[in-house]
Amino acid sequence: QVQLVESGGGLVQAGGSLRLSCAASGRTFSAYTMSWFRQAPGKEREFVGTVSRSGGSTSYADSVKGRFTISRDNAKNTVYLQMNNLKPEDTAVYYCNADGRQLGFSDYWGQGTQVTVSS
Asked: Considering the chain, what percentage of its residues have pLDDT values greater than 90?
């Protein structure tokens, strides 16, 4: 069982920055591919970015490419999402996901953290 706790959300003006963190419980953090998703009001949850188990590979949605950076610290069981040049359309609840299905583990979600970008 893995528990994920996101933090770092808040209210920021357009053009500003925020850094989200997702702390995971358990001893097998490095077995999970970690991702961030977001869900805006009235919209479906969408992919933001992902980082490989080792942290050596990342990929992003086109909408955030060049502005957001995902990273992880396996020693601290934590994944980060650095968000720069934020836009009002980035306003959403951001969710952390741990996907261990490649190695026979399960898939877990955090409770989400609200990010609001004012224009």
From this structure: 91
Classify residue 111 by burial, with Cβ atoms within 10 Å: 0-12, 13-18, 19+.
exposed
CA atoms of 4 and 95, how far apart (whole Å): 9
- Asked if 42 and 22 touch (Cβ cutoff 8 Å), the reply is no
User: What's the CA gap between 106 and 31, in Å, rounded?
Assistant: 10
Cα–Cα distance measured from residue 25 to residue 74, given in angstroms and rounded to the nearest whole number: 11
3-state secondary structure of 74: coil
> Each residue of 51-106: pLDDT tens digit?
999 999 999 999 999 999 999 999 999 999 999 999 999 999 999 999 998 888 88
